[in-house]
Design a protein that fits this description.
By secondary structure, this protein is of the alpha/beta class. It has 5 helices and 11 strands, in the order H-H-H-E-H-E-E-E-E-E-E-E-H-E-E-E.
Length: about 180
């Protein structure tokens, strides 16, 4: 199976899944209990699109605990930066139809404690398969903090066929477990 075939399969599975909001809430509850979340002062989230795991619950938890919240912003066809955002009024539609912060002030990557990562699917070796543009792999390539991929159990695969440039995450969180 090629990565493109796997993407198509994962899209199909994900689009057929029900209760994304409930699963997102379950994942947020599991993550909130973890020391890697509790000890993080700065968290980079993502603004969910389509049937991705929603990060609103984690964002609320971060705000309640006084954490700095960041979101990705594409600044070129190959590069994204982390930008601080405190409310949904600070976003606009950006690259690929994804909501991005209006500001273009990059937050220093080395000061980010935790990055929450989206993906189409993941494997138990903690690799992800995204949409194919490579933004997260490039961003995470020199990141030294903790990275957590959010995934529905149904989207865990034996392998997502990682390439040499694919970055292994610290954890994968599903609605049932964190590993």
């Amino acid at each position: 199976m090629t990565k493109e075939q796997l993407r198509k399969e994962l899209h199909s599975i994900r689009n057929g899944l029900k209760d994304t909001i409930s699963a997102s809430h379950q994942i947020a509850k599991l993550i909130a209990r973890e020391p890697f979340f509790q000890n993080a002062g700065t968290v980079m989230l993502y603004y969910a699109i389509k049937s991705e795991i929603v990060t609103d619950f984690l964002w609320e938890k971060c705000v309640d605990e006084g954490k700095i919240c960041l979101f990705p912003k594409c600044i070129s066809k190959t590069e994204m930066i982390a930008v601080r955002a405190e409310s949904k009024t600070e976003f606009q539609t950006g690259a690929y139809g994804i909501m991005e912060p209006i500001s273009s002030t990059a937050y220093p990557k080395e000061k980010i404690d935790l990055i929450i990562v989206p993906g189409l699917g993941f494997d138990k070796e903690k690799f992800r398969i995204g949409y194919g543009a490579g933004y997260y792999d490039r961003y995470l390539s020199d990141y030294t903090g903790i990275s957590v991929g959010l995934c529905r159990e149904a989207l865990l695969k034996e392998s997502v066929f990682p390439a040499s440039h694919d970055v292994k995450l610290s954890y994968i969180a599903t609605e049932k477990q964190i590993f």
